[in-house]
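Handoff note, outgoing to incoming analyst
You'll be picking up this chain. Sequence as last confirmed:
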Amino acid sequence: MENKSKVKESQSGYLVKGGEPGVKIFGSTSSRSRLLTLFIILTALIASLAGCGEPPLVTYQVSGRVVHPGTGLGISGVKVLAFNSGQTATTDNNGAFAFTGLSGINELYFIQDNWGFSPNPLEVTGAASNLTISRIPLPNANLVEPKVVCGYGHSLFLKRDGTVWACGYNFYGQLGNGGTTADSNIPILIKNGVVAIAGGDYHNIALKDDSTVWSWGSNEYGQLGDGTSTPYSNIPVRVSGLTGVMAVAAGREHSVALKEDGTVWAWGGNRLGQLGNGPNPDSNIPVQVSGLSNVIAIAAGALHSIALKDDGTVWAWGHNGVGQLGIGTTEETSSPVQVRELSGVMTIAAGGGHSMVLKDDGTLWAWGSNLYGQIGDGTKINRNMPAQTNGVSDVIAIAGGGGFSVALKYDGTVWAWGNNLYGQVGDGTTTQRSTPVQVNGLNGVMAIAGGGYHTIALKADCSIWAWGSNSTGQLGDGSNANSSVPVAVQF
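Most recent structure output, in case you need it:
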């Protein structure tokens, strides 16, 4: 007989023993229901202890940056959609984005008006960081990455719509506006349909979207490459016989082009071997640089040229009077020779009489003329082999000027050193600097260029700033006053 004084059921559904609260059983108060409920609870407990049942939801985090492919500078305002999880994000001023709590397979889509991205979409299946996505022009958007370049006393600007603008010195028609050689202290339109530009001392080169090359300005040595001996041209003329070109560069008397097949071609003056085709005369049409293949980047100094190969080595030819070829001597060479003790190079640049490289470990190296401290090693001793530039790190782009150097850092700030006679270093003084100093008041910069005695920077908002000599209006601010700090170019 059941002892009702020992075991009883409360009206609230609790099983109590001896009148004291025990384990709460929800549901029916019948004995059979109580046993079934107890069985279910015990089964679930055993299953969980045994690792059986439904596995917990696994989530992960993903982060990365959207960048300009040429500079690595972050792009703000890009919408990012994690498709499977339904999350969205917008890149910040550094181009960064992040998602938390993602699960399963997600496709990340990157969206910004008039631009494409690579890769897009990007599939992620688990935790990932430091993802890098490049912004690229849409095939039908007629957009290019804006750029700035400098000549000796003039400036060029390539806008997103493919138009080229110029200001400054125009004695040889380097502004390309036809009918006049008057200087201009505000930018004037030259040409459209352009995807890349280069500025020499007194001439310019433009690469169009159909891979043809055009030039204008001084032609004393045949540097326009149109097969004529006309002293100059104040309108763009087509360079003869060049197709499949992907990059261009210009020096004082010569011009250089890199073709899609990795070969390098040059034209113009060759008195110091700057065409790289041996001890041959000047050429007013392109000739192939001897013995170079697998080249991915080119640069031209005043009278020398350098090339970066896909294996990270650097090759140079032409004038070497101050060691700008980096081969351990000061002897000229009319064919490419490898720069000594240098590998792992990502980016190259050339100034008037010096050369610069950015290595994959983030260090900056330079060689050649150091009269004004443009090597940046704290001395004014010329270097015929690469020497490390001191006091600057996290560099993503470099540029060489007449006797000075410029670097763009990952954080969008600009640093400069060397000749500062006209304020081209941009630190608010005219004091020469043998190590890098920060340019005053500039951030958010995505591209830089150095001229004879002036400097230009392009910001991510597409505004353009310039400083240094302005005697011919090359700063483009509507005046002819020099400036030791950046001033806005007026469009």
